[in-house]
Design brief:
The chain is 22% helix and 33% strand. Helix 1 runs parallel beside helix 2. By secondary structure, the chain is of the alpha+beta class. A hairpin with a 4-residue loop joins strand 4 and strand 5. It is globular and about 40 Å long. The chain has 2 helices and 8 strands. A 6-stranded mixed beta sheet has the order 1-2-3-8-6-7, covered by helices on one side. The chain has a single domain, classed as 60s Ribosomal Protein L30, Chain: A. Belongs to the RutC family.
């Protein structure tokens, strides 16, 4: 059975998709961009953008009764691979236990709303 996960603590979807879907203990989180859900505005600067994306992911995980320790797979989309080191450092800081999920990072030519970073995630719970 599929359960749609939605929280006001993360930005609303900007298209015909859900923030996340929970299926048999697996949570599929749509790509999150650096929109501050309190204001609906984009944050700017790769460091602030990355923190906002991670906060958005965290809010969705929390709504599903999970946290970053449940993450098993992420995909990071960057507009500029020169931002990799900054994004990587901030991303790593959200995983307290050092048990990082599997991941790939790819450079893309453009992202929604012309942001610099987008991250999607798959998480699992028993």
């Amino acid at each position: 059975m599929k359960n749609i996960i939605h929280t006001e603590e993360a930005p609303a979807a900007i298209g015909p998709y859900s923030q996340a879907c929970l299926v048999n203990g697996t949570l599929y989180i749509s790509g999150q961009i650096p929109v501050d859900p309190a204001t609906g505005k984009l944050v700017e600067g790769i460091d602030k953008e990355t923190h906002q994306v991670m906060k958005n992911l965290e809010a969705i995980l929390r709504k599903a009764g999970m946290d970053f320790s449940n993450a098993v797979k992420t995909t990071i989309f960057l507009k500029n691979m020169d931002d990799f080191a900054v994004v990587n450092e901030i991303y790593a800081s959200y995983f307290d236990n050092g048990q990082y999920p599997a991941r790939e990072t790819v450079q893309v030519s453009c992202l929604p709303k012309n942001v610099d970073v987008e991250i999607s995630m798959i998480a699992f719970t028993n």
